[in-house]
Design goal:
By secondary structure, the protein is an alpha+beta fold. The protein contains 15 helices and 5 strands. A hairpin with a 2-residue loop joins strand 4 and strand 5. Helix 2 crosses helix 3, helix 8 packs parallel to helix 15 and helix 11 packs across helix 13. The two termini are about 30 Å apart. The relative contact order is 0.14.
């Protein structure tokens, strides 16, 4: 079996015990960046053409739309979410035209749940039956990811398509670290910029849920130091939930693959998700995937050593 039992990464470059993300600063910057992307005409307000010192809506305009006082909204945007009600957060979310993921992120930042710190420290584990199930997916790349987009278990087809993760140290089996720090993944994803943006958005969601997670803080710190592109994307404060879509890959052995992916949250642990990839039936990608499946372990070994075009 090419699957590996779930392991909690033991450290990583730049990790400092006890380090955490500043929740108040995260709340402040998130609200500021969401407000900056809206123009008066976007929300039905008149624009009299006056010079604006900052892009987007003014605080008083946003407060008017949300039905709260300017002073109240200002305190919230300064990171003081103490005693804010769910109704007020809902009104602000509507005024800012937040997506479902953004609304959830705002709630996590403004009204953090007390159990989150304990949950962040809990080792991530995948049940043995789930590992067995993934291994039965013949010809379908499948894996389980957890917090921080750590890759916990995977099947042989995932290794054939994405590379042999068993050859990496456990702390490096992380999608964000691979996308930003390993050149082969920049070449693997045809739309690398979109993949990179998605990874940062996923990490932002995790940061809202687990601001006390030292491994997440260490990962963000490491990527910020080593990747200018990560720093730029992290500063946007965009958030997104893992969902479904299509990925185009340039595989070193079989060329271009177009695969649809689906994400399934595990019922017994909502922090774990199973991700599967499949081609359109009868397509060139389906034939290419069948060829990789027939090669088995040879495809994994050949893919790891094949020169990238």
């Amino acid at each position: 079996m090419d699957e590996q039992p779930a392991q909690e990464p033991t450290g990583g470059a730049g990790q400092e015990p006890g380090r955490r993300l500043d929740r108040r600063a995260e709340l402040s910057e998130f609200l500021r960046t969401r407000r900056a992307r809206l123009k008066p005409e976007d929300v039905g307000l008149p624009d009299f053409g006056r010079h604006r010192r900052v892009p987007g809506l003014r605080r008083e305009e946003l407060a008017q739309l949300a039905g709260v006082s300017v002073a109240y909204y200002t305190r919230l945007e300064q990171g003081n979410g103490r005693n804010v009600s769910a109704e007020v957060l809902d009104a602000i979310a509507r005024a800012l035209r937040l997506s479902g993921a953004e609304h959830a992120h705002l709630t996590h930042l403004a009204k953090p749940k007390q159990h989150k710190k304990k949950a962040s420290a809990r080792p991530q584990q995948v049940r043995g039956a789930m590992r067995q199930l993934i291994d039965t997916f013949d010809g379908v790349p499948a894996y389980v990811v957890g917090r921080r987009s750590d890759i916990l278990v995977w099947n042989r087809m995932s290794a054939a398509v994405f590379g042999d993760w068993s050859q990496m140290p456990a702390q490096e089996r992380n999608w964000a670290r691979m996308v930003f720090l390993r050149p082969e993944y920049r070449e693997l994803f045809v739309e690398w910029e979109q993949k990179a943006s998605d990874m940062v958005s996923f990490l932002r969601m995790d940061a809202g849920c687990h601001p006390d997670d030292p491994r997440l803080s260490a990962l963000v710190g490491e990527l910020s130091v080593k990747s200018e592109e990560f720093r730029r994307l992290w500063a946007t404060h965009d958030v997104k939930e893992k969902s479904h879509g299509v990925k185009r890959l340039h595989h070193p052995l079989v060329g271009e693959l177009t695969l649809s992916f689906e994400t399934f949250k595990l019922v017994d642990d909502e922090e774990l998700s199973m991700v599967t990839y499949h081609p359109e039936p009868g397509s060139p990608s389906a034939e290419a995937l069948r060829l990789l499946a027939s090669w088995g372990t040879d495809a994994v070994q050949a893919g790891s050593s094949a020169p990238r075009q």
